[in-house]
Amino acid sequence: MSKQLTVLEPEVCCAPLATATVPAEAAADLALAFKALGDPVRLQLLSMIASADGGEACVCDLTPAFDLTGPTISHHLKVLREAGLVESDRRGTWVWYRANRPRMASLSAVLDIAPTA
Amino acid sequence: MSKQLTVLEPEVCCAPLATATVPAEAAADLALAFKALGDPVRLQLLSMIASADGGEACVCDLTPAFDLTGPTISHHLKVLREAGLVESDRRGTWVWYRANRPRMASLSAVLDIAPTA
DNA sequence: ATCGTTTATCGGCGATAGGCGATGATGTTG
DNA sequence: CAACATCATCGCCTATCGCCGATAAACGAT
Known about the structure:
The structure is a homodimer. By secondary structure, the first copy, chain A, is of the alpha+beta class. Chain A has a single domain (24-111), classed as Winged helix-like DNA-binding domain superfamily/Winged helix DNA-binding domain (Arc Repressor Mutant, subunit A). Helices cover 45% and strands 13% of the residues of chain A. The first copy, chain A, has five helices and three strands. Chain A has helices at residues 24-37, 40-50, 59-62, 70-82, 101-111; strands spanning 56-58, 86-91, 94-99. Chain A is elongated. Chains A and B meet through α1, α2 and α5 of A and α1, α2 and α5 of B. Chain A binds a DNA duplex through α4. Chains A, B: Pfam families: HTH_5 (PF01022). Chains A, B: This is Transcriptional regulator. Chains A, B: Keywords: DNA-binding, Transcription, Transcription regulation. Chains A, B: One of its GO terms (molecular function) is DNA binding. Chains A, B: InterPro entries: ArsR-like_HTH, ArsR_HTH, HTH_ArsR_DNA-bd_dom, HTH_MetalResp_TranReg, WH-like_DNA-bd_sf, WH_DNA-bd_sf.
């Protein structure tokens, strides 16, 4: 929603992990994102959001997909938000989430394996 | 999608997160790996190992790079091992670690963003 | 066999994370 | 306005995490 605090530095780094030692500051930011992905519920939430039709998913559609309470889902969404993986947008009664695709792409690139090692 | 079918998977699936909702079992395995990456020290350890000359790194070279004790580094390496991200190999006095590149590639693929959404 | 070196495991401690119910903030509708 | 619905935040509890010192296990050298 109107969470004015978003990732100020979206593109933190992209050097593949296997090509050079990641600096400490970059490691902190990357670890924050990977930690957010390190939970089955959040992983499914992100996949539901990213694969949703139109690229957006309403919380009202996400919550009933789990055997968890509303506050818990809201908490997980907050973690994903603060990790810069999703963005939210309140439209009327409902809140819609969409994936931050550049962020995901950057994480994917970090894990990418160089063709020749 | 292209006709690139990967025959040998290390553990689990590889369907990009943004194309379909990830099943619960796959989410558990993926979350385990991402959780292992969700720590700055482990992220740097993996990058040091993966980018090391010859693709291998000795614990004796890893430990002094951090302001942490031996047991703590050993613990982090164990987490990476149990997540399937690295493999270890004792050769004489020292233990050498190398990255599990297929595993990393599979995680990278999961976060990959489809060209057209 | 005994020592020194390297790495892993064990036990414990403080900090963090995931879960819930209760409450609050926001928006729609009657 | 009041009543309702949706979603977020708060407080609390338990479980897990990250860290250390102490100890054990594996190996080479003496």
